[in-house]
Amino acid sequence: MAPAPSHCHATNGNNGAIAAADTPVKTQHCARLLDADEFRRQGRLVVDLIADYYAGMGEYPVHPTVSPGFLRHRLPAEPPSRREPDAFAAAMQDVRDVILPGLTHWQSPRHFAHFPASSSTAGALGEALAAGINVVPFTWAASPAATELEMVVVDWLGKALHLPERLLFAGGGGGTILGTTCEAILCALVAARDRKLAAIGEGRIGDLVVYCSDQTHFAFCKAARIAGIRREHCREIPTYRDDAFALSPAALRAAMRRDADAGLVPLFVCATVGTTQTTAVDPVGELCAAAAPHGAWVHVDAAYAGSALVCPELRGAVAGGVEAVDSFSMNAHKWLLANNDCCVMWVRTPSALVAALGTDQEYILKDAAAETAAAADGGAAVVDYKDWGITLTRRFRALKLWLVLRCYGVEGLREHVRSHVGMAAAFEGMVRADARFEVVTPRRFALVCFRLRSPNKKKTANELNRRLLEEVNAASSGPYMSSANVGGVYMLRCAVGSTLTEERHVREAWRVVQDRATSILAKMDIIMSSVNNISLQEKAFPRRGNGFSSEADAGSTCTKAEASYAS
Fold first, then answer.
1. Where would a tag sit more exposed on the chain, N or C end, judged by fewer CB atoms within 10 A?
2. β-sheet with 447-452: strand ranges across
3. What would the pLDDT profile of 43-64 be if each residue is shown by its tens digit?
4. The Cα angle at residue 549 between residues 546 and 554, in degrees rounded to 5
5. Three-state DSSP class for 346?
6. What pTM value is reported for the model?
7. Which positions does the record annotate as the modified residue N6-(pyridoxal phosphate)lysine (predicted)?
8. Is the Cβ–Cβ distance between 561 and 531 less than 8 Å?
C-alpha cells in the first residue's frame, strides 16, 4: 500500500481540512521525531551495541536455554502511554539484558545448524542506509534511482554468477530483488500458470500439475497451493542415495508422460541447486530437456548454493544446464554478505511476469511524462517493479547489494565462499579420519552430512545419532548443529557459513562431537556388559512365577535395559 498521511497532521472530521484553531498542530514535536542531532546520538548507541555484540559473540551460547513465554513474562502487558525519560537508551539496555540472551545467535562462529544468514559491515550499514533514506520504489517514477540501481546490480550479480546473458537485462531478460525464495517461487509459478492458461483456457486450472523431488524445499508445494494448484497435483518424485538424492530426469519424464496421457497438463518443474537437507544438485540441463516437450516452465531454486557460482571451480555443479531455464533465484543474504533479506530472481521472459503480476488500474502510480521520455529516447523500457512481484510497497534492497559488491568486489566474495568451503573440507577430513564415523552424502559446498556408526546391530544408528546431536547441542559453549533424515538415514549436519567462523571453531566443534561420541559409546559398553551378564545369569538360573518364564522374556528385558543408555 502507498504510505498513509503522517499522523502528525490534525484534520477536521467534517471535511478533512487542517484544524487551525480547534486542534493545535504540534509541529515542534513532529520535527523532533527526525531531529538530526538526536539521530546522531541514538545512532551511536545502536552502532556501539552492534559492535559490542559482535565483539562479545563468544560469550553467548549459540542457542538459548529458555522456555516459551520467557520474554512475555518479563515485559509489561501494556505499551507505554507516553514517552519515557531517555527511552531509547533504556530500550537499548533491555536489548542487551533481556532480548539478546534469548536469541539464537545466527552470527555466532559456532552456529553450524543452518545455512548462513551472512552479515558484513557493508551489508549491515547498507541496510541501515536504506532504512534511513526510506523510499518506496514501487514504480520507476516513485524512485528512479532506486529502480535503475536495482536493474544495474541484478545484472552485475548475474554476471558474477556466470548466468546466461538471456536471463539479464543486457540479454533481453531481467531480474528483481525480493525478500525470500518463497516469494520468487510463487511469482514464477503464477507467471507460468497464467501463460499456460492463456493457451489452454482458464477453465483448466484444475488440470495443471507441478513437479519437484522429495528433497525440494517445502516452500514449493506451499507456493503451488497458493497459486491454485491442487494438492494432489504436486508431484514429489522420490530420490535415492545412489543418485546423491538428485531428481532423476528419467523419473520426471515418466511422471510427465503419465500425466499428459491422463489428460492433465504438466506446468512447472522446480529444480534445486543445493537442497536444504544434503545440498543435492539436480541435473538442470537434463530436466529442462524432459520438460521441453510439454512446454513446462523450469525454475531453478539455488537459494543457498547459488552464491557458490561466483567461484569458477564450483560452477561445474550446474555447468551447461542453466541456459534453457525460465527463471533462476538465489539468496544473496545466505552466503554473499548482503544481510537479510535479499533474494534475487532472474527471468528469461519478463513480459510473462508482468502479464501475471502487473497492475494497470492505479493511474496515480503512473508517470506519463516518464513513459513519453522513454519512448523518445529510443524506446528504453520503463521498469515498474510493482509488476514483478507480489507486494506494492517494497524496500530499497538494491542499495545494500550495491554496497556489498562495491566494497568487496567479486574477488572478495569468492574468497569468502572459498574460506567456508575449505573449512568444511577440513571438517569432512576429520570425520573420515575417525573410523567410528562416516560421511553420508558427498560434500559439494560447505555442508558436511555425517553420522556415528552403530557398534551394535541391535541398536539402530538413527537412535544413536539422535542422542549424539542432543549431547553436542547441549555442550556448554559448544557448537550448534542440526539433523537431516533422508531415505530413512538420520544424520548430523555441519554447515559452515558464519562470517565470524574460523578454522579453530571448526576444530573445536569436531572435538566436541568426538568427546560426546566417546561418552555415549562408553555408556553403551557398560550397559551392554550388564545386559550380557544378566542374560547369562538368567539362562543359567531360569526363574518361574514372577521371574523369567522363558529365554524370550529374558531377552525382552535385556532389550529394555539396552535402550536405557539414552536416558
1. C
2. 437-439, 447-452, 489-495, 482-486
3. 999 999 999 999 999 889 999 9
4. 100
5. strand
6. 0.87
7. 334
8. yes
The fold of the 124-358+382-408 domain, in CATH, is: Aspartate Aminotransferase; domain 2 (3.40.640)
Per CATH, 124-358+382-408 and 410-523 having the same topology is answered no
Enumerate the domain spans of the chain.
124-358+382-408, 410-523
Buried b / exposed e along 316-329 (16+ C-beta atoms within 10 A): ebbeebbebbbbbb
pLDDT in tens, 351-375: 999 999 998 766 566 666 666 655 5
Q: Are 450 and 439 in contact (CB under 8 A)?
A: yes
- Look at the chain and count its residues: 567
CATH number for the segment(s) 410-523 = 3.90.1150.10
- Give the amino acid at 34: L
Q: Mean pLDDT, to the nearest integer, of 476-481? A: 90
Helix count and strand count (H, E) for the chain: 16, 11
Q: What are the cell numbers at 450?
A: 555425517
Place of cell 538494491: 398
The secondary structure of the chain in percent helix, strand, coil, rounded to multiples of 5, reads: 50, 10, 35
Q: Dihedral, CA atoms, 39, 41, 46, 49, nearest 10 degrees?
A: 180
Contacts for 25-31 with beta carbons within 8 Å, 24 or more apart?
30/6
Amino acid at residue number 503: E
Contacts of 68 (CB under 8 A, 6+ apart): none
Check the CA dihedral 270-271-274-277 and report its sign: positive
Cell numbers for 309: 557460482
Spatial CA neighbour of 166 closest among 332, 328, 385, 389: 328
Q: DSSP characters for 302-344?
A: -TTGGGGGGSGGGGGGGTTTSTT-SEEEEEHHHHSS--S--EE
